TrEMBL record:
The keyword NADP applies. Signal peptide: none annotated. One of its GO terms (molecular function) is L-xylulose reductase (NADPH) activity. Keywords: NADP. GO terms for biological process: glucose metabolic process; xylulose metabolic process. It comes from the Bacteria. The keyword NADP applies. This is NAD(P)-dependent dehydrogenase (Short-subunit alcohol dehydrogenase family). Belongs to the short-chain dehydrogenases/reductases (SDR) family. It comes from Paracoccus versutus. SUPFAM superfamilies: NAD(P)-binding Rossmann-fold domains.
């Protein structure tokens, strides 16, 4: 799967799965437009893979639209930006809800909309992959808003696939298990919590960011040209048992 001559916009490209996607796509020939709120991450990506960086706080809808306009028309979009605020059901706050839903869901939908508008104006075609989570399928302690945001993004992915399909734009999602990133470390660093979770995976391990990126590249590629509206678990079999 090569992407020479193609351009991909990646949100949350500075860290974790987003950065793994940036490295992989650049390694396969794509021009990477990296969106991140951390300038040092953008600078290091530019030095490492030649990515064009756009600093943006995706919690701000107007700034998100402006960043997508600055990114311009691209062939692919990977919505990787995401946060979590660990709060129980009884302790959920409005601030936590707004932060998680604002970035994980609202910003992703804005990016999809702006990407699609540019693609339609250019004659159609292209592909989107949204990153969701197995937390949208199973209930995890203190993940109320996170689960709601990821389940919502999966529902939106199906609507996007239906409405954008006539324009030749494919839209899919991946639902990773716990992936060894900075965000996961905060939530799963306690062995008492992580070990019972790990043994529920038939492959008996969590995912690496590079493995999720490889699945995303597959869905973007022409090898998946008949796949749209799908949610691909990248979970070592977790949801199968």
């Amino acid at each position: 799967m090569q992407f020479s001559g193609k351009t991909v916009i990646i949100t949350g490209a500075g860290k974790g799965i987003g950065r793994a996607c940036a490295r992989l796509m650049a390694g396969r020939g794509a021009e990477v437009v990296a969106l991140s709120r951390t300038q040092s991450d953008l600078d290091s990506l530019a030095a490492e893979i030649g990515a064009r960086g756009i600093r943006v706080d995706l919690a701000d809808p107007a700034a998100t639209r402006a960043a997508m306009a600055q990114a311009g028309t691209a062939d692919y979009l990977i919505n990787s930006a995401g946060i979590n605020v660990l709060e129980s059901v009884l302790d959920m706050t409005e601030a936590g809800y707004e932060a998680v839903l604002g970035i994980n869901l609202r910003a992703a939908l804005i990016c999809c909309q702006e990407f699609a508008r540019a693609r339609v104006a250019a004659g159609g075609g292209g592909a989107i992959v949204n990153i969701t989570s197995i937390a949208g399928h199973r209930g995890f302690q203190d993940h109320l808003c996170y689960a709601a945001s990821k389940a919502g993004l999966e529902g939106a992915t199906r609507v996007l696939a239906k409405e954008l399909g006539p324009h030749g734009i494919r839209v899919n999602a991946v639902a990773p298990t716990i992936t060894l990133t900075e965000l996961a470390a905060e939530a799963w660093s306690d062995p008492a919590k992580s070990q019972p979770m790990m043994v529920r995976h038939p492959l008996n391990r969590f995912a690496e960011a590079e493995e999720v990126a490889q699945s995303i590249a597959l869905l973007l590629s022409d090898d998946s040209r008949m796949v749209s509206g799908a949610v691909l678990p990248v979970d070592g079999g977790f949801l199968a048992v």
